[in-house]
Amino acid sequence: MSEAANASRSATSGVGEVLAGGNMGEVLRIGDTVRRPAGEWTPAVQRLLALLRESGVVGIPEPLGLDERGREMLSFVEGENLAAADPELLWSERVLVDAGRLLKRIHDASVPLTGADLVWRTAAREPVEVVCHNDFATYNLIVRDDELVGAIDFDLASPGPRIWDLAYLAYRIVPYAADAPDTDGLDRAARLRSLLDAYGTDASPRQVLAVAAERLDELEAFTRDRAAETGRADLLEHAAM
């Protein structure tokens, strides 16, 4: 999961709005910026975002360095979180295709960093082909005026294979996730084929689903570890799903 920064605001304080989610640390919106905890991985994330923007990828946060409190500072991407959108938009064929194409643009632009000597928050995964977002899902996609306009939350990025991101996107947007709302009538087989065609991959649906299963096994273990660290019962419920 991610901070799902644009989904909703859970609280307001004198120093900004606490953005909903925040499973990896408190995230604030202050004016047109987002502030989040920084770490040794932050320079790599900021370099990735800068490279993507220089390569013409639009709708992603602008890296703004650190603020006076040592927090990572990013531009706020205006719009609605896709996961919170009406089902008609959430499951539209157009958004599904655009999500696949956006992931492909991000992956292609990230290639120059695959061999760079950088510290990432999550471990690299072989075969290294691109820098994976590692949480490219509906709750990290932004829509505006019924169009997909961008993606947020690159904090978990690290080098890995293209199919690792693509499989998790399929799980969330085809969708196969048990918590996906209002999915009656969706032709999942057709939607998966559309997503793979939009990305332009030679991977078969069977291969993508096998990687999705592997991805979910890893996510369950990660989520249980986070639940143990934080004492949050909701994370255990998410791991069980």
TrEMBL record:
<dbReference type="InterPro" id="IPR002575">
    <property type="entry name" value="Aminoglycoside_PTrfase"/>
</dbReference>
<protein>
    <submittedName>
        <fullName>Aminoglycoside phosphotransferase family protein</fullName>
    </submittedName>
</protein>
<dbReference type="Pfam" id="PF01636">
    <property type="entry name" value="APH"/>
</dbReference>
<feature type="domain" description="Aminoglycoside phosphotransferase">
    <location>
        <begin position="119"/>
        <end position="190"/>
    </location>
</feature>
<dbReference type="InterPro" id="IPR011009">
    <property type="entry name" value="Kinase-like_dom_sf"/>
</dbReference>
